[in-house]
Write a structure and sequence with these properties.
The chain is of the alpha/beta class. It has 2 domains: about 10-225 and about 405-415, 3-Layer(aba) Sandwich (Rossmann fold), CATH 3.40.50; about 240-400, Rossmann fold (3-Layer(aba) Sandwich). The chain contains 14 helices and 13 strands. A 7-stranded parallel β-sheet has the order 3-2-1-4-5-6-7, with helices on one face. Strands 10-9-8-11-12-13 form a 6-stranded parallel β-sheet, with helices on one face.
Length: about 425
């Protein structure tokens, strides 16, 4: 029987339990529901659509759809909400002193962000009132350090007894990943949050450098993946089988991966899982440029379960990621759970996963000819040496990125959370 302390958890997701995305919250939710009597999920960006099928959640969850969905509102409507709201206007004025004059181009983004936060705050306030939450027994948790976290910070400003926390990942965390390198309301939001659970040490260190006065709020709480149903087998026919898995976007730099592979001399079969706006361009490039020793296939978008099934049913020797930016790549965690080594660029928290024992950490601005040589060298390693890489990859996952361990610990920390 659970104690009275923190019986209730309110989660502000983006769309979960509705697809797409947030697959890792889909894994985490089971552990949260084991710890809390009631878990209420509010997908703040979900626009009601009868054709979208809700993903299954444990029995003690309840989903609240916001109406209207904040993401369905026009920017002019969000601007009005911000200007007509005394707290929203105060937050914007306070934020303006941070963006003027260096980040003035971000002013519309800031207004939109705060307008979203005001709308989320308003609807969340009603849900809290209707459900008569006892604040001493409730934790409010934003899955992203975005407008929903700002909405919680606004509510905390009005009701200091609230216990509010947020996760922080990558795009919601690092300012340098955005065209205008500024994250709206981040300073004011983290100042009011009781705790920020960051998915990588790199992210935690980043926030501590930015906000040293509240550095005690930032705690590393890693994501995790489920134990693999089986083990991915190595190739036995002299072909190096490489997999990459990502959206086909500029940040993933798949064009550089093609430029690398076409310089390799070993026999290679490259499979890419994922789709996106650059597919046609990349397909044309690979058809025209890669030599006959490089075979390839674009497998398109797959559900997470299908990706894992692919690793289980196909030989894979190496996972590769040449992104220019990452939070901490869960795709590599999943590969490691199957004992697949990885070559990956040294960006974000990738170095917390990849090292010389389980793969190779590549310089962000790598030379394609040098990387091609490294891949050829890996292909020519002995069976025993390749096996040592596979074992080290699995051990790294088992020690640091096993969902059972990480999410159990995280759920208990929320259950026992006392706030400030």
């Amino acid at each position: 029987m659970k104690s009275d302390k923190n019986q209730h958890l309110v989660i502000l997701s983006s769309r979960f339990p509705f697809p797409p995305g947030e697959e890792f919250l889909e894994t985490e939710i089971k552990y949260l529901c084991n710890e809390f009597q009631n878990v209420h999920i509010i997908p703040v960006n979900f626009i009601d659509d009868s054709s979208v099928i809700e993903r299954g959640t444990p029995q003690n969850t309840e989903v609240y759809k916001l109406n209207p969905s904040p993401s369905s509102l026009k920017k002019t409507d969000l601007m009005k909400k911000m200007l007509w709201d005394s707290q929203g206007k105060e937050w914007f004025v306070r934020e303006f002193k941070y963006i003027f004059p260096k980040y003035l181009s971000a002013s519309l983004k800031v207004a939109n962000w705060i307008g979203l936060a005001v709308e989320i705050r308003n609807q969340l306030s009603k849900i809290v009132k209707d459900n008569q939450y006892k604040l001493s027994e409730t934790v409010f948790y934003s899955y992203w350090l975005g407008p929903s976290a700002t909405a919680l910070a606004m509510l905390k400003e009005l009701e200091p007894s609230m216990k509010i926390v947020s996760r922080a990942h990558g795009g919601d965390l690092y300012a340098y990943r955005h065209r205008t390198p500024y994250m709206p309301a981040q300073k004011e939001t983290v100042k009011r949050l009781d705790k920020v659970f960051v998915i990588s040490q790199d992210g935690s260190d980043y926030l501590k450098r930015l906000y040293p006065n509240v550095s005690n709020k930032f705690t590393v709480s890693r994501l995790g993946t489920k134990a693999a149903a089986g083990e991915s087998m190595p190739s036995r026919d002299g072909v190096l089988r490489i997999v990459s898995c990502s959206n086909m976007l500029p940040v993933k730099r798949l064009d550089l991966l093609i430029d690398t592979l076409k310089r390799c001399e070993q026999k290679i079969f490259w499979s890419h899982i994922g789709d996106g706006p650059l597919r046609e361009e990349l397909e044309k490039k690979v058809k025209e440029e890669v030599p006959s020793n490089i075979q390839w296939e674009f497998l398109g978008r797959k559900k997470n379960a299908e990706v894992l099934k692919y690793y289980e049913s196909h030989p894979v020797d190496l996972f590769i990621n040449v992104s220019s930016s990452e939070g901490i790549p869960v795709s590599i965690m999943e590969a490691y759970s199957f004992g697949i080594p990885s070559f990956a660029t040294d960006v974000g928290g990738t170095r917390e996963l990849v090292d010389s024992r389980n793969g190779k950490l590549i310089e962000k601005d790598f030379n394609v000819e040098e990387l091609a040589k490294d891949i050829d060298q890996f292909a020519s390693l002995s069976k025993e040496k390749r096996e040592s890489y596979r074992l080290a990859a699995y051990k790294k996952w088992e020690e640091f990125f096993f969902s059972e361990t990480n999410y159990t610990q995280y759920a208990k920390s929320l259950r026992e959370f006392e706030g400030r």
